[in-house]
Amino acid sequence: MLKISDFARIGQVAMSALRYYDEIGLLQPAHVDQQTGYRFYELDQLSRLHRIMALKEVGLDLTQIVQILDQDISAETIQKMLRAKQVELRRRVQEEQERISHIETRLKSLEQGRRMPTYEVILKSVEPLTVVSTRDVVANLAQKAQYADDLLIFLRQQKVKPVGPVLYLYYEREYTRMDIDVEVAVPVERSSVGKLTEYRGERVALRDLPAEPLMVSTLYHGSPYLIGEAYHALGAWIEEYAYTITGVCRKVCLRREGDLDDYLIEIQFPVEKQTPEAPFSH
């Protein structure tokens, strides 16, 4: 048998980890000296240790590893656990990549000495709009964009031609960068849409976005990571003219491909007047 120190060296794991695995019953020593408390392991226990390390490396937690090694779990269940972990890790990578893009945008802005631009905020009416849409909670900006791309591909497969730019409708009552409750909507001609099939395991809806008699709006040109300044301009206008927001925010993606710094987005909020007059544009 091998002392714990030798077993740890051969197995390339810390002795503290082996002690912890013993405590939780994941990998118990073959023998413990009753007088000294020293742990001893047999060489053939290395195969179990290697399985533990391999499962840890793919991101499974110790509770899941105990289940896999000690319980009668089917290969199908293990595959589901690994696929779930794969989805989680891809989401983390996507989130970190988005953070990097956000940092790069901020650095570029600082290096260029960029000042906050002046935004023209207008008040207008919006006609009802027939859309094909689907709603989900998305993790971040990149996933939201992919969600829209997937819907456009789906419509192309259904031979449904969009008649306007993609819209995002946000149902969060307060701002959040992650886990965004968003509806992706694509304007269509109602007569061109037949019976829609399932999309991504969910249902797509053919519906009419309601007309809005008062919609405060501004155009934003630039990286979506700096769009907060346009929201700031809208908020200042709403406060100055004593309006209140009455519904969900809409973002109309007039240009959403190519260089991030060349994105063109119209931000819209339905509002109602609390006190007299503000400029109105049709």
UniProtKB/TrEMBL annotation:
Coiled-coil segments? 79-113
**This protein's record includes keyword Plastid:** no
InterPro entries named in the record:
AraC_E-bd (IPR010499), DNA-bd_dom_put_sf (IPR009061), MerR-type_HTH_dom (IPR000551), MerR_fam (IPR047057), Reg_factor_effector_dom_sf (IPR011256)
| Molecular function GO labels | DNA binding; DNA-binding transcription factor activity
**What are the residue boundaries of the HTH merR-type domain, all occurrences included?**
1-71
Keyword DNA-binding applies: yes
Alphabetic keyword roster: Coiled coil, DNA-binding
Return the protein name: MerR family transcriptional regulator
Write down the species.
Dictyobacter alpinus
